[in-house]
Design goal:
Elements (H helix, E strand, L loop, with lengths): L5 E2 L1 H5 L7 E5 L11 H7 L6 E2 L19 H10 L7 E5 L7 H10 L5 E4 L2 H7 L25 E2 L1 H10 L3 E4 L3 H5 L18 E2 L15 H10 L8 E4 L6 H10 L5 E4 L2 H5 L16
Parallel strand pairs: 1-5, 2-3, 2-4, 4-5, 6-10, 7-8, 7-9, 9-10
Helix pairs in contact: 4-9
């Protein structure tokens, strides 16, 4: 393995066929990307991989995109994939958004801790000429049980409390122009800007040319340059809860565990005119 919670392509390739290890394709694309993640999975995936549909594994009754589902809904979906409580999962994606991090966090928030992320994703795997298949992966349904871990998630009320107490740092994964409010949000009806006192750490800046997460020293340098104190708790946010999980993944890779996801993210905060916002760069230290 590489640094937890990442595993290398070499590590996974040497273990394909191990019945206890299940690759999981969690690719997701923005609606305007013109890509169908499940169709691409059916055309080519890592041997033995199952497809985890992020849209389907979201709360059906919510008006917001990608909020976590009820535990019973998650259990039903995971059981159908043939994933058991003792399965070792290696999540990967072929997405510019590094969406595998969202699936990784969802499994963790429902108490499945034997879950890792393939460093470099399908892009690196494919570049290295490793095995791909279009064969359907058939697994026997299981009796997977999940249990919600509330400490891994924050609600809007939690974030409002944080604005008063300043006990947790809010870190926004969106691109700088969206964070500063100089461009319109891609989803209609959302205000532009960011949560007051938030720091900006664009998720796309955390990856090397080969699509792997930056080395620990470079990650730490970027985090500190963004004005984030690694000794204090963090709440990550983004547009709709996908790339906030990329920041969580990066922090955990550095050994930092006190990081929670604001699940509603800007889709929730930016749509509520009663909530405060700021525009422009992050406030100076």
């Amino acid at each position: 393995m590489t640094h937890f919670p990442l595993v290398s392509t070499e590590w996974l390739a040497s273990r394909l066929g191990d019945p206890s290890i299940i690759p999981v394709d969690a690719s997701w694309h923005m609606p305007d990307a013109g890509r169908d993640a499940e169709k691409e999975y059916r055309q080519a995936h890592i041997p033995g991989a199952v497809f985890f549909d992020i849209d389907e594994n979201s709360h059906k009754a919510s008006t917001l995109p990608h909020t976590i589902p009820r535990v019973d809904q998650f259990e039903k979906s995971v059981r159908a994939l043939g994933i058991a409580n003792d399965s070792v999962l290696v999540i990967y994606d072929d997405s510019d958004l590094h969406s595998g991090a969202r699936a990784w966090w969802q499994f963790r928030v429902f108490s499945h801790m034997q879950v890792y992320v393939l460093d470099g994703g399908l892009r690196k795997w494919r570049t290295e000429g490793r095995a791909l298949t279009s064969d359907v992966t058939e697994r026997t349904p299981t009796e997977f049980r999940g249990k919600f871990v509330p400490s891994l998630m924050r609600t809007t009320d939690d974030v409002l409390m944080t604005l008063k107490s300043r006990k947790e740092q809010i870190v926004d994964a969106r691109a700088c122009a969206r964070f500063e409010g100089s461009v319109a949000e891609p989803r209609p009806g959302l205000r532009s800007g960011h949560i007051p006192h938030a720091r900006n750490l664009p998720f796309a800046s955390l990856f090397a040319e080969d699509n792997t997460l930056l080395p620990a020293d470079e990650l730490k340098a970027k985090i500190e340059a963004a004005g984030i104190d690694l000794s204090k708790p963090v709440v990550t946010s983004c547009g709709s809860g996908i790339t906030a999980c990329v920041l969580k993944l990066a922090f955990v890779s550095l050994g930092k565990r006190d990081v929670a996801i604001y699940d509603g993210s800007w889709s929730e905060w930016g749509s509520d005119i009663g909530l405060p916002i700021e525009t422009g760069p992050a406030e100076s230290l």
